[in-house]
Each structure stands twice: as structure tokens, then as C-alpha cells.
Design goal:
99 residues; 7-stranded mixed beta sheet; mainly beta
């Protein structure tokens, strides 16, 4: 029995987004969470109680562990938001509305 072969997908040219001021690459159709993971980033939210780091937990938009601020809009679920060229993604601390 032969192992399955990987899909020969051709998603298109990568593009840049920024995460906390650092440029990372994303692919067309990729979520922000996937782009962060592919860049080696596994945590991008700090809880308001306890200051604990969080990243993806459920990966399907049910929980709120993967919240980020995107282009100034807090509380965006990184697992659901599609990366777009030039997006400014920031680590979210607490509610995202903290001073």
C-alpha cells in the first residue's frame, strides 16, 4: 500500500502582513492563525486575568483564545479572519479595549 500523496495545490503568490511590527508571509485564502503558525508564532493573546499567553484552541471559531487586533479592530478571531495583503495584526492584551 502506498501512502497518500500530498495535494498539488498552487495557492498563489505569498504576500506580507505584519504581526506586532514584524513582517510575516501569508498565502491567498490562509487565515491569520495559519499564517502566524507557519511563521512560528503560537501565542498572540494575553488574558486579562493572569496575563497568560493564548493562541489557537478550537480552530473553528467557537472559543475566544485566538483573538487578535487586526487593522485597529480588537477581538478578531485569528482562526476565522482571512489574511489580506498589508494587514496589521497585533497581539491582543485583555479585552483589546484596555488603555
Amino acid at each position: 500500500m502506498n501512502p497518500p500523496q500530498p495535494a498539488r495545490a498552487h495557492p498563489g503568490a505569498p504576500f506580507a502582513v505584519t504581526f506586532d511590527g514584524r513582517e510575516i508571509q501569508a498565502l491567498p485564502g490562509q487565515t491569520i492563525a495559519a499564517a502566524l503558525w507557519a511563521s512560528g508564532v503560537t501565542a498572540w493573546r494575553i488574558t486579562r486575568d493572569g496575563g497568560r499567553a493564548r493562541g489557537v484552541f478550537c480552530g473553528i471559531g467557537v472559543c475566544f483564545d485566538c483573538l487578535v487586533t487586526v487593522d485597529g479592530r480588537p477581538n478578531q478571531r485569528a482562526c476565522l479572519v482571512t489574511a489580506v495583503p498589508g494587514a496589521d495584526v497585533r497581539t491582543q492584551e485583555g479585552t483589546g479595549h484596555d488603555g
